[in-house]
Amino acid sequence: MPACTLPAAVKEQKSFLESLLQRHGAVLLRGFHTTATAEDFNDVIEAFGYEDLPYVGGPSTRTEVVGRVYTANNAPPHRKLHFHHEMSHLPSYPRKLFFFCEEVAAFGGETPILLSHIVYGKMEEKYLEFVEKLEELGLIYTIFAEEEDDDSSALGRGWKSMFHTEDKIVAQQRAAKLNTKLEWMENGVKMIMGPTPGIKRDETRPCKTWFNSIAAAYTAEGGDRKDSEKMGVSFGDGSPLPENVIHDCLKIMEEESIDIPWQKGDLLMIDNLAVLHSRKPFTPPRRILAAFCK
């Protein structure tokens, strides 16, 4: 009997997989040895039949691989990527994320995941005033982008690839649709994104989720120089976030998360509204691919 391919299994069991994703927020598919390449991964995404969401407006450097498949993040392997919801700073964000392990790291490189409503609940319990202010004002993200991509930074995407154009006028038009103001500078552009919600309500469960990239943006300010120059975050009125609260939030995230140690051929489905994700440092080689769906 021929081995069952993952695209065939997806088409047959799509409703069951969706019910698992709705119940748990993330689903790991492992052991489908017919899925080994980027092309195989793209076939799986096509089998689900979800609408594609182009990666426009995101600050992470990625490489288009094939079809709807990108590299997960081109940041240097020594960098830890902190918890975030994908494209949470934008009005249009993917509801479903797919990650695929094409090559396992020699050491490290796990993908920690975390239920967002747990973070919200613990932060509300401990810092009610902060959470109420976050809900009322939202967040403003400030991102600096050079013309070309800079793979030495976790936030190094250039504005040309970010907006899929080399024309500044077209970039401004596309930025406006993303609730983003561009301020052109001699060596690049400063993007002011927002105000955008820092908390969302997941009507399908229902609960409130910690839907933001505060951890990724704030830790960039104190991380490698490359990243500290590229991204900042504040309340929607421009006032600073309290440092002690953010550091405690980072601690809560670490305590409540679980690590996904990759095996070759693994495919991880994530409900982007329900689950935050990050990346641990690693020793190459490691190749994780990604796809984003509405």
Describe this structure in words.
The protein is an alpha+beta fold and 294 residues long. It has two domains: 6-75 and 87-107 and 261-293, 4-Layer Sandwich (Double-stranded beta-helix), CATH 3.60.130; 116-254, Double-stranded beta-helix, CATH 3.60.130. The chain contains nine helices and 18 strands. It has helices at residues 6-24, 38-48, 116-126, 128-137, 159-162, 168-177, 214-221, 225-228, 243-256, and strands spanning 26-29, 64-66, 69-71, 81-84, 96-103, 107-108, 111-115, 139-145, 180-185, 188-196, 200-202, 207-209, 231-235, 258-260, 267-271, 275-279, 282-283, 287-293. The strands form five sheets. The protein has a six-stranded antiparallel beta sheet with strand order 1-15-5-18-3-2, covered by helices on one side. A four-stranded antiparallel beta sheet has the order 4-16-7-14. The protein has a four-stranded antiparallel beta sheet with strand order 9-10-8-13. Helix 3 (116-126) packs across helix 9.
Short descriptors:
Double-stranded beta-helix, four-stranded antiparallel β-sheet, alpha+beta, six-stranded antiparallel β-sheet, single chain, 2 domains, 294 residues
Give a short synopsis of this structure.
The protein has 294 residues and is α+β, with helices and mostly antiparallel strands. Helix content is 31%, strand content 29%. The protein has helices at residues 6-24, 38-48, 116-126, 128-137, 159-162, 168-177, 214-221, 225-228, 243-256, and strands at residues 26-29, 64-66, 69-71, 81-84, 96-103, 107-108, 111-115, 139-145, 180-185, 188-196, 200-202, 207-209, 231-235, 258-260, 267-271, 275-279, 282-283, 287-293.
